[in-house]
Amino acid sequence: MPLVRISLNKTTPEFARSVGDSIHQAMTETIGIPVGDRFQIITQHEPGELIYDPTFYEIDRSEGFIAVQITLVAGRRPKVKANLYRRMTDLLAERLNVRPQDVFISLLEVAPVDFSLGNGKAQFADGLPPHLQALKAT
Q1: Residue 22 domain boundaries
Q2: Tens digits of per-residue pLDDT, 77-90?
Q3: Angle at 82 between CA 6 and CA 18, to 5 degrees
Q4: Structural domains of the chain, count
Q5: 94-113: average pLDDT
Q6: Contact of 68 with 104, CB cutoff 8 Å
Q7: Averaged over 28-57, what is the pLDDT?
Q8: Residue 21 belongs to domain with CATH number
């Protein structure tokens, strides 16, 4: 039930899909997202529509810049988040030759009741699914 927004410069549908595949795999491997729990919005932008500083924080970014914003249930520890960032950039580099410097990741953490998976209900209001049970203890 994380919602993943991926923004990148215009490319092929296959490349965009592979970016989404890599990000989802990183999430399943590092933060416990079930394989079938995939909700992604991939937006491809024309030149000049994706605006970013090419050298902010002394990181050399290129036209291959990709912004990833993940809205997910709060509670994961900093080490788990760091593992997600590392695995995501590793997979993108291995599979698609995306430079780690070009991957900008932002996590938006919300309460479980801030999600409705459909049917106009807050499915997690009465209890968390097994993969999120450990977060309740932190």
Answers
A1: 3-137
A2: 999 999 999 999 99
A3: 30
A4: 1
A5: 96
A6: yes
A7: 96
A8: 3.30.429.10
